[in-house]
Fold ABC transporter ATP-binding protein.
Amino acid sequence: MTAAVEPTGPVVPDAPAAALHAEGIKVQFGGLIAVNGVNFTVPNGGIVSLIGPNGAGKTTFFNALTGLYKVAAGYVLLGGRDITGLPPHRVADLGLARTFQNIRLFGLMTAEENVKVAMHSHLKSGVFGTVLRTPRQRREEKEAHETALELLDFVGIGKTAGEYARNLSYGDQRRLEVARALALRPKVLLLDEPTAGMNPRESAQFTEFVHRVRDEKGLSLLLIEHDMSVVMRVSEHITVLDRGEKIAEGSPEQIRTNDRVIEAYLGTAGKESGA
């Protein structure tokens, strides 16, 4: 079988040296423009949050970055490599992993098995090696088992390795999703509403965990998050979308006091009334 030729995309000599960079991203569904000309950068080793009111285009933008949605205009660079138009599995193979707003686990597989699924693209034994149980296949199977347990320990749910995913608590399912994403060996990790459904204690713990992922795994992280207390604690840089367009970006303090951001979240009337 001939390997597929990987698209190289346009040469962008002035593109920033960044973990992830999007330029002029436009996503359109028929006559509806869901994301309009957004420029966005995640620096190497950075923790960046993408926020905005409901319907602002945040998840649509995530889906465009990861190849789930077709980009009508613009391009996406991952570590300087053009990944625009690649299918999601190729984007993941190249180092851009994500979790989802709605948890997507295999409920009737164990926590360990859920993590192992993500390792498939890195295994080299193939079908014949698996059927014949070659020494290489047995070695890879042992390594996958050890790696899965290490990742489950890292995210704090090591004791659940043999439990079905559907039986885990909501917070542990969120952590299992992160472990599975880390099994892809990403360079950039995208977290979509990672603290949704968590109580304040779990949210605070997750904030600390995000910094551990960056510091110990050497990743860059991009979050969509509605809990503003989490956003302000975890983010080094924040970008704000409203109605598919970028309206502000800056440090947490700059965003907290930005008039356009306040208006987008509260509305002009709310702002004037001091709400």
Residues 1-8, 127-131, 268-275 have pLDDT under 50 and may be disordered.
